[in-house]
Amino acid sequence: MPDTEGGQDRETAAIAGMSDPSETLHYEMNRRGGSPVLVGRAAEMATLAAAFDAVRQGGPAALLIGGEAGVGKTRLINEFAGEARAAGARVLIGGCLELGADGLPFGPFTAMLRDLVREIGADELVGLLPGSDRAIRELARLLPELAGGQPAGDAASALRNAGEARARLFEEFLTLLERLAAARPLVLVIEDAHWADRSSRDLIAFLIGYQRALANVLIAVTFRSDELHRTHPLRPLLAELTRIDWVERTELPRLSRGQSEELAAAVLGGFADRALTDRLYGRAEGNPLFTEELLACPDGCALIPDSLADLLQQAVRRLPEDTQEVLRIASAASGAISPMLLARVTGRTEDELTAAIRPAVTGNVLVTTADGYAFRHALIREAVHEDLLPGEHSQVHTKFALAIDADPALVGDGRVDMEKAHHWYAAHNTTWALISAWQASMQASRSVAHAERLVLLARVLELWDQVPDAAERVGADHVRVLEESAAAARDAGENKRGLAFVESALAELDERTDPVRVALLLSERHMFHREIGMPETLEDLDRALSLVPEQLDKKARTQLLLAASHFGCHEGGPHFRERANEALRFAREAGDRDAEAQALAMLAVIEAGPLGVAEPGSETFRLSAQARAIAQQVGAYQPIIKLVIYESHLLCGVGEYEQAAMVAREGIADAERHGLARTRGAFLAINVAEPLLYLGRWDEALDVAERALDLAPPWSTRCSLSILSGSIALARGDLATAARLAEASRVMLSGVRYEDQKNLPQAVLDIGLALATEGPAAAVASATETLTEYDLSGSSSRYVWPVLVIAAAVARQASGEAADALLGRVRTLAEKQDVVGPVQRAWQLSYQAVDPRAGDDDDAAGAGDAASRLAAADAAVAAWEAIGQPYPAALALVGAAQVALTAGPSGRAAAAARLRRAAPIAEQLGAHPLSEQITALLPQAAGPAAGPQHERLSLTGREIEVLRLVTAGQSNREIAAALFISPKTASVHVSNILGKLGAATRTEAAARAHALRLFEAQDGAR
Ligand SMILES: Nc1ncnc2c1ncn2[C@@H]1O[C@H](COP(=O)(O)OP(=O)(O)O)[C@@H](O)[C@H]1O
Ligand SMILES: [Mg+2]
């Protein structure tokens, strides 16, 4: 193409400033690089501004902005960033880089931190996180220079629990943002998330998920939507995020024809002729990047390149050959590249480099950033890189790898290993690719970037056979790499892959020569089986233990013993106790405090037995307190938190509510001290709110739940908190709220494995809600469903009793076959149910008060029966009062009053006394439905004027009661509910009454009662 050649010559001349003024003019016109004004995008700017307003008013808001490459995402963000800065905000932008599989872990966040340090200085940043060496150490996982040479992270704790180290890092980052945003609004932008590494994706999900806890922060994420193929890893994240109500997803469209013309006019400084704009729009189709590039063609783009990549290359080809050479090499770096590194890899002095690069900068192919040079657009870099010949490709990457190897200071602190791994791999240098991947995997481990670590280790394994002396090179044998890979897979949550690594390692080892290693792998295999949900057996652990006797390796044996006793600690039994005791002994002998704490904790659980019940002061609590003290001493957070959860759970189970709440509160404080307030702390909120609920401190319970929910905890925590708040709403008669919360938790529970401590409280809430909104028949249906769906005989009686009590109550209020059938099933379960501890005892008494088997309905005149039923109800009241649960006590009091009323006039005083006790409790709790029920019952308890009329009519006490309700217009079912009898009995009473009064209908009976002034005294009293 002679034309191109000629053009290039002219270009070169122009840049050298030698000739052809017209070309110089053209060049000058374009050096600004694009349009000084933003074309279109009014709607998108408005969306961003609205979201920004929302966060400044304290609400959460996040935007996901998709669009094809070159459509203007970065431009939009930059324009908005300018406005936000002008409005006083701080803007942090972090871009994801295309690094292939070995993306720099946390890339965009590291970039943000680096910018921040540059802006405010490391000292001020450190000062933002007061008194917290730990916080700095955590953040140094992202930006090692923060720790000033100290190792990043808390190595010991990272080893103990990788997931926790990660949670801690995430929380510290969140805290940093919180502190920054306290001073002024913060805009956080993650650019090009389609290239985000998995760790960054996780952190993005975490930050947006927890945004309610993060006032004054706007989060925006951009990505190339045209790159999201079906299995792209960003897809599920976007789907997940879009479900959050404060997240808005928008797609940036191409420019319209009119806007393209506007853009051309802005670039050219005047309106272009029709032919040009036709060509422009025809070719670039409204993509601003391509529009700009076409406009930059010297000949007004008469010659349209074949592909858009060619188009982008043209800008480069117009540059001097020396410049192009530098650009080709620079294209092998992802992201910004420091001038020093570029000088080194291009073999130039810095001055030479500056001279070579100037035309690229003026020509707007390269831009300068704080980190060095970068291509103006990634697509240009890609186009240049594609231009490299395969041989050149490896050569260039080798240069990078060698340069970084010779002088690691050329790239940022934490990046050295990753960069080397990337370049050696791209250079197809197997040996060094293997070595550097191994080294980088260790760095990834320090950065808690488990997924990236796994990728790197997989690469080591992939290259292993191609490097003859691989084991010597990395200083580890093949099995060791497999072991590391299994550990990385475990930490990254990839259990199936982890299992595969373990199996391969086992296949390579011989238990006769390597018993300890085999044993530990067997224990790992057991763990993976459990995580995957395969049937659990002790087989692997037993074999492992038989391989490692005490004299062989005490430490390994201790570990295996702990794993084995953990497996069976809930079932308990002498076998597991023995193992835990052995572990304890070894741990003490070896002075391994950590293992000691774990063994003690295990013994505590074993002590509590399969029912998980223990009284304060019992052996369980003694052991657990001992374990907690040790764990605290050695700073082993993981065991502490488990113990705190377990202790408060046990205390709550035996009615020690004050203490349960206190222990859980201490646990929250501990979580805060360990930088885990949001994750662990929120979970513990359940264990604070639950005892408060029982203690009748409902407002406090709601407050705790509300605050925990603000931290956007994981679904299982949210679910429990939702059920808890829903139960309070129901008891307070706020049915709309109760229904909303019940629905929320129901949705969360659907499709997940049954768990008695979640599904059964949910069932109780559902049954209560059905009763309140649709009546007894619906409640019976709901209860029947619960009994059918779940295996209550295999569930803890702690959660079964409440279900039985409410099921019996609704069965008694309804009538018909369904209710009878339900009651029958409930009775069977109640008979078999364990009664352990005072709380379960109270439930059982409540049950007996609700469902007195004896006498059932033939109690028309059964005053003697009523007495024993009253005693049962009173016993329930006393039991609830003894453990300090006011609400069930008040319910039982009202139940007792109802029983007393069935005894006729003689029971009225007793009924009134109980109602008077219940009234202030209901009042104080704000349990309005119960208050109303009490108000409705009080007149009955005050009693009708007893007089000769009844005697003449020979109505029994019970019949008087029934008649009074008939007179009030109540149906048999309502009468039955009010008097605590079955509707069938009520109807028998009614027909007897009709007979005695000589009335044909209920209305007639009511009229007779009226005429006889049977209830006059009572009416007068009203
Ligand atoms: N609305 C616009 N008005 C003017 N110029 C724009 C507009 N959108 C994009 N550009 C220009 O187009 C080029 C590509 O835009 P960029 O924001 O980098 O795209 P993306 O980030 O979507 O890949 C940049 O030079 C940018 O300045
Ligand atoms: Mg961009």
Structure description:
By secondary structure, this protein is mostly helical. It is built from 53 helices and seven strands. The strands form two sheets. It has a five-stranded parallel beta sheet with strand order 2-3-4-1-5, sandwiched between helices. A two-stranded antiparallel ribbon has the order 6-7. Helix 5 crosses helix 6 (122-128), helix 15 crosses helix 19 (378-386) and helix 40 runs antiparallel to helix 41 (797-813). The longest helix has 22 residues, at 162-183. Residues 1-32, 155-159, 854-863 and 1017-1022 have low confidence and may be disordered.
The largest beta-sheet arranges its strands as 2-3-4-1-5
How many H/I helices?
A: 53
Shape: globular
Bound molecules: adenosine-5'-diphosphate, magnesium ion
Number of strands: 7
Structural class: mainly alpha
Helix content: 55-70%
**Average predicted local confidence, pLDDT:** 85
Which regions are unreliable across 5 or more consecutive residues at pLDDT < 50? 1-32, 155-159, 854-863, 1017-1022
Query: Radius of gyration from the CA trace?
Result: 38 Å
How many angstroms separate the termini?
107 Å
Strand content: under 5%
Which sheet architecture does the biggest sheet show?
5 strands, parallel
Summarize the structure.
The chain has 1022 residues and is mainly alpha-helical. Helix 17 packs across helix 20 and helix 26 runs antiparallel to helix 27. Helix content is 68%, strand content 4%.
Main features:
single chain, 1022 residues, mainly alpha, 5-stranded parallel sheet, two-stranded antiparallel ribbon, 7 strands, globular, disordered N terminus, disordered C terminus, binds adenosine-5'-diphosphate, binds magnesium ion
